[in-house]
Specification:
Belongs to the DegT/DnrJ/EryC1 family. With 395 residues, this protein is α/β, with parallel strands linked by helices. It has 13 helices and 14 strands. It binds pyridoxal-5'-phosphate.
Length: 395
């Protein structure tokens, strides 16, 4: 018999992100499967209504779609964006924000970020406006709102449309107003697996513009116009429909909406948990050679979709070394984002160089996103904190 202690059990790998799916979500999906109605139907409709109520505006138009990318595409299509037009957005985003502009044959004008918030720099927007500019797509990076009042002022002054990429911003407020209820033309949320709530894949286009919503509803399902039925009322047989445009296949299934109905009910509690974890990180990292993410102004809500650290110039390791050291301690990290100007497609199409985007480039070289999600236990949070400290050579 040996007296030595057993070797410590290696902790399981802590992934960068995980969804939190409860028994209610599972039961609702099973109910959908048993109902015989698995594609878009009553639950997708209920989810749209519940989403409007969550935004505190039961009359706002909510159009459920199978991704945020689809929602962004539909919003721009409904606004008539097309060849010859330019749309301004941030280089510091996911390619989906910009690719939808190219789907429509319009051109993307990428601009640099504000180094304090990593959100699109409003002065750079103004400098990028040309006679061809039609629209601005702000991204509420990590879940911290862009200064929308100032951005909407710029848009009004120049007669531009605004479509918010709110993939990170649920729920986020600015001046106490929820993103989705501001004065932009449309706002698009994502329910991708790693977002603040998930339907597996899914998104929601939100607008107060009834005409935009009507067009998006037609185009989300093959260009089928259901309003045509109204003209004939009861005389139209149930099998009849009219195609008014070459639409897309962007509808959200009831299986996905079943998840969404219950995720939405938990969203406020999810946000509180995320904020709690973010506060623990901010406190634990205050003495480290890091630039910590900015918090929302007093009284406003940060969704804390991402917790993005920036290694300070005096940090003893590079970003890549830091990520490797975290990985060696069993912690998954990510980088948000490899900026668009670095990717071959965007770089070559528009002749972009890193020098054109100094703040985004510097952020890219120094940022790392660490795990922050509701399925983390307090012990997981402490483990991440210890790993960050150790990876920076601090006990
Ligand atoms: C996730 C994400 C998207 C795309 O969302 P999907 O629902 O996957 O299409 C768009 N923009 C940003 C900033 C994102 O993070």
């Amino acid at each position: 018999m040996t007296t030595s202690a057993p070797a410590p059990q290696a902790l399981p790998f802590l992934p960068f992100a995980l969804p939190e799916i409860g028994e209610e979500e599972i039961a609702e999906v099973v109910d959908t499967l048993r109902s015989g109605w698995v594609t878009t139907g009553p639950k997708a409709k209920r989810f749209e209504q519940a989403f409007a109520e969550f935004l505190g505006e039961p009359q706002i138009e909510c159009v459920a779609v199978n991704s945020a990318t689809a929602g962004l595409h539909l919003a721009l299509e409904a606004l008539g964006i097309g060849p010859g037009d330019e749309v301004i957005t941030t280089t510091h985003t996911f390619t989906a924000t910009a690719e939808v502009v190219r789907y429509l044959g319009a051109d993307v004008k990428l601009v640099d970020i504000d180094p304090a918030t990593l959100n699109i720099d409003l002065a750079q927007i103004e400098a990028a406006i040309t006679p061809r500019t039609r629209c601005i797509i702000p991204v509420h990076y990590a879940g911290l709102a862009v200064d929308m009042l100032a951005l909407l002022d710029i848009a009004r002054k120049h007669g531009l449309k605004v479509v918010e990429d709110a993939a990170h911003a649920l729920p986020t407020t600015i001046e106490k107003e929820l993103i989705g209820t501001l004065g932009s033309n449309a706002t698009v949320f994502s329910f991708y697996a790693n977002k603040t709530m998930t339907t597996g894949e899914g998104g929601m286009l939100v607008t107060r513009d009834a005409e935009l919503a009507r067009r998006a509803r037609v185009m989300r399902l093959h260009g089928i116009n259901r309003d045509a039925f109204d003209r004939f009322t009861a005389k139209v047989p149930s099998w009849y429909y009219e195609i008014v445009a070459p639409g897309f296949k962007y509808n959200l299934t009831d299986i996905a909406a079943a998840l969404g109905l219950h995720q939405l009910k938990r969203l406020s509690a999810f946000q509180v948990r995320r904020e709690h974890i973010a506060e623990a990180y901010l406190e634990a990292f205050a003495d480290l050679p890091l630039i910590l993410p900015p918090q929302a102004p007093e009284g406003d809500t940060h969704s804390w979709h991402l917790f993005v650290l920036r290694l300070a110039d005096e940090a003893p390791v590079s970003r890549d070394q830091f990520i490797e050291a975290m990985f060696a301690r069993g912690i998954g990290c990510s980088v948000h984002y490899v900026p668009l100007h670095q990717h071959p497609y965007w770089r070559e199409r528009y002749g972009l160089t890193a020098e054109m985007f100094p703040h985004s480039q510097k952020a890219y070289e120094r940022t790392v996103s660490i795990p922050l999600y509701t399925a983390m236990t307090d012990a997981d949070v402490q483990r991440v904190i210890a790993a960050v400290r150790a990876s920076l050579g601090v006990a």
